């Protein structure tokens, strides 16, 4: 844990997994006593009472612990018992992507919210794909309008990342009211400090446009979906979202049925076998 705390902001999640799941099952064993059989038995038992995603998080953490032990040449540790053990298939992931019409309706309704900053916070999330806390804690000093880039000092990975300032973002920031002696871009007008929670005002606004199932994090999903469906590459989306692995980006990159149909239609253009203009050229078979 001392090592992980130096670079992982979500280390407290690891502490919880170790305390509630790993120690109760493996706490009485030395590392070199844990076998692949033990891991498989743990998965089978844990899967009876926990969802696949929860089980997978424990497996991933165990795998990381053993990999560190091998890297650090811990005496007695020569192999990783979690190696080649696949993660459980997760069919319980909730994925919700806003359509352009839904996003427009939502943004319009936000103007009526009692929380006067919500009309800027939510569009900022949609336009940048940033995480909620990254937007709530954003400071004016983080924005370089000459280079058109927003520097997020500490992201989820613990490192700084950079988000392009699009024309939409620049227009939005020009409309945001500024407060004297306040460094934050989207502060609570009463305290001049970042909001602790915006759930109540957000919950009211989303229900008014029949989007009660849409979570704030779904706006990040939608950002990736909008980009991919408009022809941007997963690599570009990965860089903007700040993902370290492309497989993480692929989860967000939802392709609409229209995009998939358009892609499938390309084969008809490349090999026009049964296109209307070619039908007359195909000989008909005479049935005896």
Number of helical elements? 12
* CATH topology-level name of the largest domain: hpI Integrase, Chain A
**Ends distance:** 81 Å
Spatially, the strands of the biggest sheet line up as 1-2-3
Radius of gyration: 25 Å
Classified by CATH, the class of the largest domain is Mainly Alpha
The figure for the number of domains is 2
Structural class by helix and strand composition? mainly alpha
Query: Roughly what is the average pLDDT, rounded to an integer?
Result: 85
The named CATH superfamily of the largest domain: Intergrase catalytic core
Helix content: 40-55%
CATH second-level architecture of the largest domain:
Orthogonal Bundle
H and E string: HHHHHHEEEHHHHHH
**Weakly predicted, low-confidence segments:** none
Query: What share of the residues does DSSP label as strand, in percent?
Result: under 5%
Major sheet details: 3 strands, antiparallel
Oligomer: single chain
Give the SSE layout.
Blueprint: H1 11-26, H2 36-46, H3 52-71, H4 100-110, H5 118-128, H6 132-136, E1 143-144, E2 149-152, E3 161-164, H7 167-175, H8 199-208, H9 218-229, H10 234-241, H11 246-252, H12 257-270
Antiparallel strand pairs: 1-2, 2-3
Helix pairs in contact: 1-3, 4-5, 5-7, 5-9, 10-11
Question: How do you describe this structure in short?
Answer:
It contains 12 helices and 3 strands, in the order H-H-H-H-H-H-E-E-E-H-H-H-H-H-H. It has 288 residues and is mainly alpha-helical.
Describe this structure in words.
There is one protein chain. With 288 residues, this protein is mainly alpha-helical. It has 2 domains: 68 residues, no CATH class; 153 residues, Intergrase catalytic core (hpI Integrase, Chain A). 47% of the residues lie in helices and 3% in strands. It has a 3-stranded antiparallel beta sheet. It starts with 10 loop residues before the first helix and ends in an 18-residue tail after the last helix.
């Amino acid at each position: 844990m001392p090592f992980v705390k130096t670079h992982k902001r979500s280390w407290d999640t690891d502490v919880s997994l170790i305390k509630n799941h790993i120690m109760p099952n493996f706490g009485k064993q030395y590392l070199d006593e844990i076998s692949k059989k033990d891991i498989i038995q743990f998965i089978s038992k844990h899967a009876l009472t926990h969802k696949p995603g929860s089980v997978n998080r424990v497996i991933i953490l165990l795998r990381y612990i053993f990999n560190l032990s091998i890297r650090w040449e811990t005496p007695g540790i020569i192999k990783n018992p979690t190696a080649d053990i696949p993660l459980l298939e997760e069919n319980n992931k909730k994925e919700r992507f806003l359509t352009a019409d839904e996003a427009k309706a939502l943004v319009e309704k936000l103007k009526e919210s009692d929380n006067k900053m919500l009309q800027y916070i939510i569009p900022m999330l949609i336009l940048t794909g940033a995480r909620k806390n990254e937007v709530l804690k954003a400071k004016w000093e983080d924005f370089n309008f000459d280079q058109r880039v927003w520097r997020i000092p500490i992201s989820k990975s613990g490192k700084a990342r950079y988000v392009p300032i699009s024309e939409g973002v620049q227009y939005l920031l020009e409309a945001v009211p500024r407060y004297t002696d306040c460094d934050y871009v989207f502060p609570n007008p009463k305290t001049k400090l970042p909001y602790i929670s915006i759930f109540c005002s957000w919950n009211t606004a989303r229900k008014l446009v029949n989007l009660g199932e849409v979570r704030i994090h779904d706006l990040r999903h939608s950002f990736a979906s909008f980009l991919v469906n408009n022809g941007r590459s997963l690599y570009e989306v990965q860089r903007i979202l700040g993902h370290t692995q492309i497989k993480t980006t692929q989860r967000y990159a939802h392709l609409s049925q229209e995009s998939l149909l358009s892609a499938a239609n390309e084969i008809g253009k490349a090999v026009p076998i049964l296109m209307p203009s070619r039908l007359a050229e195909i000989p008909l078979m005479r049935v005896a």
